Hints:
Shape: globular
Number of domains: 1
Structural class: mainly alpha
Strand order of the largest sheet: 1-2
Amino acid sequence: MPLHAEFDLEQAVLEWRGWCGTLWGRFMxxxxxxxxxxxxxxxxxxxGINELTRMIGKSLILQMTSDLCSLKEQLLSxxxxxxxxxxxxxxxxxxxxxxxxxxxxxxxxx
Length: 110
């Protein structure tokens, strides 16, 4: 499917699979095990916020890039989307907004 293709929303089947607090490694396990109701045509991913307090930004970016390339190789027709939803400003691991903002800026620079 070309990137510029428009979706026929009347024909689309949408399903939300959300697991609160899921870390990247667990998401990839679920995706590779077929728990995301594969095969899919499109997969929108909103992931990584919980990782900012656990992984260095560059490490996280490299790991996600590698994993998504692997997923794409296994599912050639899959169109991957990355969501740009508003980020969380508090986490159980760290509630200081200044530190969270610094983590966001660090990842965005990389």
